[in-house]
Fold:
Amino acid sequence: MLYVMEACTMADEVDMVTLNLDDDNRVVIHMFGATVISWICGGKERLFLSSTSLFENGKAIRGGIPVVFPQFGPWKLGPQHGFARISMWDLYSKKIADGRCSARFILINNEISEAMWNYKFKLIYDVTISKTNGLSCSLSVTNQDSKVFDFTTLLHTYLKVDDAETVTVSNLQSLKYIDKLKNGEEFTESDSLLKVVNGIDRIYKSTPATQEVFGCVDGSTVIVSKNGLPDTVVWNPWAEKARNMSDFDDDGYKKMICVEPGFVVERVILQPQEERSFTQNLVVTK
Ligand code: BG6
Structure:
């Protein structure tokens, strides 16, 4: 059912869905990967999207919020970070109610997914924008097979920042992390506010439900909250790696930080007919 409110409109272009709360608050989702590619909040873009992102088959969109499923990182059965972010999803419904706009996307097993990962599954992805609760992205996974399966998943959120050198992230102190830039060795975070120095690629284990990212657009703070996602990956490729990626602006690393809520250290195990939900919420504060 579609509820219509005057102050909230929706417009669709080919392969894209736009949810408009008003001129200053809207979100755009690309059907390729059900990737949120733009989030305007308070009149400003809050997500980083590389201008050289390829938007072509087989290659994930470089920026926004790609959905990682059923594998975070390299995968012996298929591409890094799995197939969800490089699959065309279906738009199932759009809803406008109570000052919120939302869209629901669906991906079910198909020939391409089965060639890599031979299970029947259903992914439902709800993207909701509201003035009071910001941007919410909620993924639910249902096992529609007769056999158990396991997976890892993550929302690969690229936040736009003023200057990556001055960005800091809270609520990671004293936590254990795997440093992918140091042969996957485990360390304990000593800093109360994490800084990105010459690049970072870490998996923080069992993180609190909320991280604050200070130094986002125009000095704003983005609060990243999560539910059902125990871990947080923090990534910035820095100069040399960015240069070596054909879809990453050479200077783009200065304008982004990925803070990625995920279920990646352990694997999620789903019994036949079982369903599990994973949610990220982004709110901008000054
Ligand atoms: C991060 C990983 O989540 O994604 C990094 O921790 C990886 O190791 C990065 O380099 C980007 O991955 P991709 O496949 O989008 O280039």
In short: The chain has a mean pLDDT of 94. The CA atoms of residues 226 and 280 lie 4 Å apart. The domain at 3-285 is CATH 2.70.98.10 (Beta-galactosidase; Chain A, domain 5).
